[in-house]
Amino acid sequence: MERDSMEFDIVxxxxxxxxxxxxxxxxxxIKQSGLSKEKPSVLIxxxxxxxGNHVLSGAVVDPAxxxxxxxxxxxxxxxxxxxxxxxxxxxxxxxxxxxLPWVPPMMHAENYPIVxxxxxxxxxxxxxxxxxxxxxxxxxxxxxxxxxGKITGIQIGDKGLDKDGSKKTIFEAGPNxxxxxVILGEGACGKLTEKLITERNLNKGCNAQTxxxxxxxxIEIPSRPEQKGSIIHTFGYPMNSSTxxxxxxxxxxxxxxAIGMVTALDYTNPTINPHDIFRLFKVHPLVREYxxxxxxxxYGAKVLPEGGFYSAPDLVxxxxxxxxxxxxxxxxxxxxxxxxxxxxxxxxxxTLFQCWEKNDYSLPMLETYSKIFQETSGWKQMHRVxxxxxxxxxxxxxxxxxxxxxxxTGGIL
Length: 413
Ligand SMILES: Cc1cc2nc3c(=O)[nH]c(=O)nc-3n(C[C@H](O)[C@H](O)[C@H](O)COP(=O)(O)OP(=O)(O)OC[C@H]3O[C@@H](n4cnc5c(N)ncnc54)[C@H](O)[C@@H]3O)c2cc1C
Description:
The chain has helices spanning 17-33, 66-69, 72-76, 117-131, 191-199, 274-282, 285-291, 338-358, 363-366, 368-373, 377-384, 388-391, 396-408; strands at residues 5-7, 10-13, 42-46, 59-60, 80-83, 86-92, 97-99, 113-115, 134-137, 141-147, 150-156, 159-161, 167-172, 176-178, 181-184, 211-220, 230-236, 245-251, 256-264, 295-305, 316-317, 320-322. By secondary structure, the protein is an alpha/beta fold.
């Protein structure tokens, strides 16, 4: 089939925080360098109609990499709902809740920003566009193109197919986008990324990736200023002791609360349903108190990668690099991936800057990305808790104790 073809220097698959950070870092480094060389052309393809539509809102973000990526002015305009003002860690039973006398050190988030992740994604998108990148929202990358073992671009999905895949009268063949390098930031379970990892054996010697499902709601409540900034993490009910997961309540503002429940998908009881677990969580007396008289304003469910350090694949192949959740770069113990996505983006942006400077996008140049990323605090955190997830196979309490031990010994145990 004849397809139109476009050419860019860099094409990003997915308009999430990881690719946007990559592009922002690259274009900022170029501007700061003052070099008169022509800037690379950059295209970001996002399958949702608007940037941020496929991102679940209501997140607590570790702000560590923000100062590295954003200028002072950009940080002032960074869309924060509220800083975290109080935090609690609770064990729930069916009818009661017990607050632990301390919050485990790895869960501490005091003063961290509580954000709408969709708003942050749109904000990063605007910064990328002002820096010169192009964003095509509403288009999905359908496959990677390759020539002689090198990734050379992507094919955008066809439009106007019916549910059996037959062409309708409005059929339009998706164009090819050729590029010197493809940045894969599709998030967890990315279609193109998973195929690439399998075909190129990029996960050789790694544990198989494991996933959890997060079900989340944002609830509008009558104004309760005293709640604003409180965050709570829970374990125990409604999860049984052999299933890994937990709940969270993030009071984003006087009138908005994000609540959610994360269920690991390696559960052994086949009757478990993550959505039912979430509904039981919602009517627990502790949770009810925070959302009473409220109305759901947003709802979503999304997978997150949980395999951690031992499941992270090679991040680079000839012509492509993988950033953020697509590579499983997430600290599942803390339920935090945004800062690691930003750090992987910064590492990728710095690498692409060197490629642009030297006009060399070869594999050895791209491999710099893994080296830079391995020096980040996010990767070191993933290393520190590398054995923790496995300890939860023995139940929730042994898992929590193992997490504490791992933290104290810096990941040795
Ligand atoms: C329930 C839940 C709660 C969470 N809470 C927190 C929290 O409080 N703090 C925190 O730090 N982290 C949290 N996380 C993790 C955080 O959301 C992720 O780590 C982060 O969003 C990863 O960013 P990313 O850019 O790698 O991927 P994503 O945010 O998933 O973005 C990927 C983008 O790529 C697009 N895409 C995918 N495939 C294609 C394709 N083929 N073509 C075009 N576009 C494509 C998607 O539509 C999406 O917009 C949470 C996750 C979940 C599920």
